[in-house]
Design brief:
heterodimer; A: 641 residues; alpha+beta; Gyrase A, domain 2; four-stranded mixed β-sheet; 21 helices; B: alpha/beta; SH3 type barrels; Rossmann fold; eight-stranded mixed β-sheet; 24 strands
Chain lengths: 641, 446
């Protein structure tokens, strides 16, 4: 069998085609209710816990979708953590959806324009069946907004197939064999899905396209930031292979590696196919046997644990299969790993053992000899060992047999999950279009002239236009320009600077650096801050009264307490009156010298009263109190008493 | 362009339009035609879009055609070891099907189609017979439907081999129908269970299946009476079995919108068949044989008394020969009295009610407060009403709709006012409780 070199792949010859689906969360309220789009720390105690089960239903065309069937088989309990700060009855599937969020619809329109896409004439919100529990209703709401877009790159034109507006799913926070716990916080957050056609032909170009689309999303200034707010799924196919969808590529830098490793996986599976032909294997049939008795005295922890769970040990014999299960198909992943990942996704099994990796895991050379004898293993045969409940073994056998027989045909079309290293694991079969039907509780989406005009008026500047504006007009230094031109805050920044005479650098540093710091130190929850909060703050008539180094503190206070700058300054003691207070305290002390010398520290009360009446309640008592006691101390010390 | 017709719906078509200097191609099944918009279910991804068709559009029609939106139906198995039921399907959300033409939900399911959503049923009960007297949403039901359904219930429960009846029904007036049956069939000796759904069966989150399963489990208990069996909490865990005459839909859309009013549910039924009684089940007995009394006078109306309301409406009912009025008064049973030094203000209800009663209309007071009893004594204004003959029925606690159905039945069943009032005051099927404990109201606050 030929060794595939990952660093020496000829993409043109392989006929590599990559497409990308990008999912971007929007920074608006939820798509079908008025709840805030914010995530809650998993450790936070939910306000309510709701448990549900889903049922398989037939689709419009009559047949059950294959994904739906697969999930139904597991018949899991779904537990939902409900948080009143970001959930309502809509997320619990106890109330019909509200009309679609207009702001989200507008952002989808902006992205349509920015990718040269064409609006559909009229759209309908659809229900896409999802029965893994991540949607309480059993479906995800989604609408097709536009099609036929394109983006230009150095390497050529890439088609933007379609742009969708949909609701994000609930977040799985714990999975066990019979239940999944979801946090409802994420459910309903508006999500733009942009589908790039498989016009990309190298791993590096795939990354470049993802990067550019990400920039377009952010240029609207309306996208969420942070981990998980953008997700990329990559479609990969090669000439002799199949189309595989890879989910969970969060890190852009990993994209080329994922593409390369998938090519390698497919090539290696094709190698195995060829090898099977050489060995003249036409169909793979497994022989199953219970061999628990061979392990009654085992030292293997894994096997002991299985016995404790009342599981049995089964062996599945594979004739003429020697060496193939241990064949490496991706760095550090073997054919055996591949079969284990299918079982993990579809049964309660956590993994398998196979001949090519034994002795190991507490299975000794002696055990191996016994096993071989027990099943009459011939030189070229191989086997798989599984630990499962007796009533599960038929399913397990069927799944392994199906997967192995697919090797004889080619690469299965499927959805896979990216690992941290860039390899992939089986997740589920590709979902077909059969699982889509109209949302009955909403009316059609119209893209009327008023809507289109509104979008044309709110399109963001391009990166190039921003560079020019920031450098030449706003006179930002190039470092800040580079950061701000790609920032989510750019439209807000432009708005503030254009509508005030505040120094652009001040605004820029505040938005890019100060706020991040405040978020990091948990002083503020940026999810709660909306555009108008910034605008109102910077355009407040009292903005100039803020001491420069106190900008962040003042913003945080005024936002968290929902007060205007004037009040914030007063409460925080930053007002210019502070200087006056100091003078007043000095005056009052001077005026009451004798009394103070008599009362000593006890003079505080007297002084407080006098100063308070002099400042007529304009200054916070705490500030006065602090200043009075300091100055009194100083006075007493200097008076040598 | 070739214009397509309604007959073309379901055909696979391709529409090519020129828009923003691009050739835009949509291929899919034609789902609907509305003026110049062709609604298409896109072939490659299943999305529905409307495509505007103009003179310059190119349309290609292919031979392939699909039939849209036909629910499945499952033949019923018979197992002689299980309790026998008569299943009555009447419409409602539980019997809806998504109409893929309009995206709307409408009622088209036969009993067999509804049962097919919940195949577990045939392991719990044996569906001996299915009936579908009508397929309607709650809002379209009328007294003739109640008379018909009561007759089917009566004919079912008098059969020896039948252990109970399950009725699927729209939830809005689920308990109305249950109450109507309660008064139209005397001495109901078997369980008659009303089941609905708040979420339609096209969803994986369909709640009707669990309600049906729980109802089926309750049949074997042989508890006589008419009950609603619906979700007991926001979770998919158990259903409450509530006397229909004490059951009310208190929420527009939640699964657990049915609550017991001034009463305790009979039992909790879990999906696995576990039953927890919340009352002493031995007290629920019926010793006589059922009789059908499906009388109904449609000359009864419910009128709401509220601030600024115009009492002249009462005259309209009087002019139109109404024989009974249920007044939905505030709290203990007030209607605007508006007494002045020398009579009443224009909008006082008192003179109008007095006139109606003098014309032999029976006027019964109920409360808008939902929970609690009415009373004709506590305030002077209440006494004025009682003095002119407004009936407070010895401080009853009947729900407005229950009093309405009971009075409509009584007006046709009895001749004299005395008999009618006597019937109204009698606790016939548990519609009037003899005492109220804190729990029923406290639970509603949880």
């Amino acid at each position: 069998m030929k060794k595939i070199n990952i660093d020496n792949l000829d993409y043109k010859k392989l006929g590599l085609c990559c497409g990308i689906e990008l999912h971007q969360q929007l920074n608006t309220h939820k798509l079908f209710c008025n709840c805030k789009s914010k995530l809650i720390n998993e450790a936070t105690k939910p306000d309510k816990v709701i448990s549900r089960r889903l049922r398989a239903v037939s689709s419009e065309a009559g047949e059950l979708d294959s994904t739906a069937k697969e999930e139904q088989k597991k018949n899991k309990l779904f537990v939902y953590n409900f948080y009143k700060s970001c959930n309502c009855l809509v997320e619990t599937d106890s109330q019909p959806p509200f009309p679609i969020n207009n702001e989200a619809l507008k952002i989808a329109g902006m992205i349509t324009k920015l990718t040269n896409s064409v609006f559909v004439d009229r759209s309908y919100v659809m229900r896409k069946q999802v029965i893994d529990g991540s949607n309480v209703s059993g479906f995800q709401r989604t609408a097709l907004i536009s099609t036929n877009g394109s983006l230009d790159f150095d390497f050529g034109k890439v088609r933007v197939d379609k742009i969708l507006l949909e609701e994000d799913a609930a977040r799985a926070i714990e999975r066990t064999d019979d239940k999944v716990i979801y946090s409802l916080d994420r459910l309903g957050i508006p999500l733009i899905e942009l589908v790039v056609w498989h016009d990309i032909h190298t791993p590096e170009d795939t990354k470049a396209v993802a990067l550019k689309v990400g920039q377009i999303f952010r240029s609207t200034g309306k996208t969420k930031r942070g981990l998980g707010s953008i997700r990329q799924d990559i479609n990969i196919s090669i000439k002799d292979g199949s189309r595989v969808e890879i989910k969970g590529a969060q890190n852009l830098d990993l994209i080329p590696e994922i593409v390369k490793r998938e090519i390698v996986r497919q090539l290696n599976l094709l190698e195995i196919k060829e090898e099977l032909q050489k060995r003249d294997i036409k169909r793979i049939n497994l022989e199953t046997k219970k061999i628990s008795c061979l392990f009654s005295k085992t030292e293997s922890k894994v096997i002991k644990n299985s016995f404790n769970l009342k599981k049995e040990i089964f062996i599945l014999k594979l004739e003429n299969f020697k060496g193939l299960l241990g064949y490496e198909i991706q760095p550090d992943r073997r054919l055996g790993t591949e079969i284990a990942s299918v079982l993990k996704a579809t049964t309660t099994l956590k993994g398998i053992f196979h001949l090519d990796e034994l002795p190991n895991y507490g299975i000794t050379e002696n055990d191996l000899t016994n096993i071989k004898k027990e099943i009459n293993l011939k030189e070229n045969d191989s086997f798989i060992i599984v630990m499962c409940f007796s009533d599960e073994i038929e399913d397990v056998k069927r799944i392994i047999e199906k997967r192995l027989n697919q090797l004889l045909v080619g690469i299965p079309k499927e959805t896979r999950m990216a690992t941290i290293e860039g390899s992939t694991e089986y997740q589920r079969p590709l979902s077909g279009s059969a699982r889509m039907y109209p949302e009955t509780d909403l009316s059609a989406i119209e893209f009327d002239s008023k809507y289109l005009e509104d979008i044309n008026n709110s399109l963001p500047l391009t990166i190039k236009e921003r560079e020019k504006l920031y450098l030449e007009k706003f006179k930002l230094n190039s470092q800040l320009v580079d950061k701000m031109k790609l920032s989510n805050f750019a439209p807000i920044f432009e708005n503030i600077v254009s509508n005030s005479n505040i120094s652009p650098t001040t605004v820029c540093v505040f938005l890019l650096e100060d706020l991040t710091k405040a978020q990091r130190e948990n002083l503020i929850d940026l999810d709660d801050v909306v555009e108008s909060d910034f605008i109102n703050f910077f355009l407040d008539q009292d903005f100039n009264k803020i001491p420069k180094q106190k900008l962040l503190e003042c913003f945080v206070y005024s936002f968290n307490n929902n007060v205007k700058i004037n009040k914030a300054l007063l409460d925080l003691g930053f007002l210019e009156q502070a200087a006056d207070v100091s003078e007043i305290v000095d005056f009052v002390i001077e005026d009451n010298k004798e009394k103070i010398l008599e009362l000593k520290e006890r003079a505080v009360g007297l002084l407080m009263g006098r100063v308070m009446s002099e400042t007529k309640g304009l200054v916070d008592g705490k500030i006065i109190s602090k200043m009075v006691s300091e100055k009194l101390k100083f006075f007493l010390k200097n008076s040598n008493v | 362009m070739c214009a397509l017709l309604k007959e073309d719906i379901g055909k696979l078509i391709t529409i090519i339009n020129n828009k923003e200097n691009k050739e835009i191609i949509f291929k899919g099944y034609l789902v609907d035609i509305k003026e110049n918009f062709y609604k298409i279910k896109l072939l490659d991804n299943g999305y529905n879009v409307d495509v505007l068709v103009t003179g310059s559009s190119k349309i290609v029609i292919e031979d392939q055609k699909i039939t849209l939106g036909k629910p499945k139906s499952k033949p019923l198995n018979y197992n002689k070891n299980l309790p026998n039921i008569v299943y009555i399907g009447t419409g409602g959300t539980i019997g809806t099907h998504v109409d893929y033409n309009t995206g709307g939900v409408f009622m088209c399911r036969t009993p067999e189609e509804i049962i097919s959503t919940t195949p577990e049923l045939e392991d719990i009960v044996n569906i001996k017979e299915t009936k579908s007297p009508f397929i309607k949403g709650s809002e379209d039901l009328g007294y003739k439907d109640w008379q018909e359904i009561s007759k089917i219930v009566y004919n079912s429960i008098i059969q020896k081999e039948i252990d109970g009846v399950i009725i699927t029904h729209g939830t809005d007036i689920l308990s109305w129908t249950g109450s109507a049956i309660s008064f139209m069939v005397d001495n109901i000796n078997k369980p008659v269970l009303l089941v609905g759904a708040q979420k339609s069966p096209d969803r994986a989150s369909f709640d009707g299946s669990m309600n049906l399963i729980c109802a089926a489990h309750f049949i074997k208990e042989k508890i006589p009476g008419v009950y609603t069996v619906m979700h007991g909490s926001i979770n998919d865990d158990f259903c409450y079995v509530i006397k229909a005459v004490k059951s009310k839909k208190l929420h527009t859309s939640r699964r657990d919108s049915f609550r017991a009013i001034n009463d305790t549910p009979i039992a909790k039924v879990y999906q696995n068949g576990t039953i927890e009684y919340l009352v002493n089940k031995n007290e629920i007995v019926v010793s006589k044989l059922p009789t059908l009394n499906n009388f109904f006078s449609d000359k009864v109306a419910i009128i709401k008394a509220y601030p600024n309301s115009d009492p002249r409406i009462i005259d309209w009912y009087l002019d139109n020969d109404y024989k009974g009025l249920i007044i939905e008064g505030t709290a203990l049973g007030h209607a605007p009295i508006l007494k002045t030094d020398n009579g009443y203000e224009k909008k006082s209800w008192l003179p109008y009610l007095k006139k109606a009663i003098e014309n032999k209309v029976i006027v019964i007071m109920c409360s808008q407060s939902i929970f609690g009893r009415v009373n004709g004594k506590v305030y002077a204004n209440l006494r004025y009403l009682e003095e002119i003959g407004v009936e407070f029925l010895d401080q009853h606690d009947m729900l407005v709709e229950v009093a309405y159905l009971k009075l409509a039945n009584a007006l046709s069943r009895f001749k004299t006012k005395k008999e009618i009032i006597n019937f109204m005051k009698t606790n016939v099927v548990g519609e009037i409780s003899n005492k109220e404990i804190p729990n029923s109201f406290d639970k509603s606050l949880e």
